[in-house]
Amino acid sequence: MVAIAHYFKLPLKYIGWNGKQVRDILFLEDVCALVELQMKQMERFRGDIFNLGGGAENSLSLREGTQLLERKLGHGTTITTEDAIRKADLPIYFTDNRKAARMLDWEPSVTIDEGFERILAWIRSNETTLRQRYCG
Question: DSSP letters along 43-78, please?
Fold first, then answer.
């Protein structure tokens, strides 16, 4: 949704931490690759649970994501801030992927830059529908 808001110059709001909260990013292609690995070895991993995320290597703050989108799109959008922090929100979160890396020889392969390019390409190819839905 953030990329859509930037693309169409819709207003956004940073809630707490002034947009400096950090999250790891994982793209669909990497999720599908892990699921395929698990399916090929279902008997071996029956009942195992794997944490799944981009990890520290694929993380960025909301402000960094905003800057990345601004560079790629050539424009920004209106962003307001709210100082109040949402209950149970964390300033930094990285997923620990070590179990999946060790047991399945898996790690995220889509970089943040590449993933954002794919998201923006999808938005461009669906621009009319998305404009109707989000811009009225």
Answer: TTTTT-----S--GGGEEEHHHHHHHHHHHHS----
| 6-38 pLDDT, tens digit each | 999 999 999 999 999 999 999 999 999 988 988
**Burial class of 42 by CB neighbour count within 10 A (0 to 12, 13 to 18, 19+):** exposed
DSSP class of residue 85? P
Beta strands 22-24 and 79-82 are unpaired
Strands in the chain per DSSP E: 12-15, 22-24, 59-61, 79-82, 92-93
DSSP β-ladder status, 22-24 and 59-61: antiparallel
Enter the pTM of the model.
Answer: 0.88
Tens-digit pLDDT profile for residues 118-132: 999 999 999 999 999
Contacting residues for 84 by C-beta, under 8 A, at least 6 apart: 15, 16
Condensed to tens digits (0 to 9), the pLDDT of residues 95-111 reads 999 998 988 889 999 99
The answer to whether 37 touches 99, Cβ cutoff 8 Å, is no
Which of 101, 97, 114, 112 is CA-nearest to residue 55?
97
The Cα 30–Cα 28 span in angstroms is 5
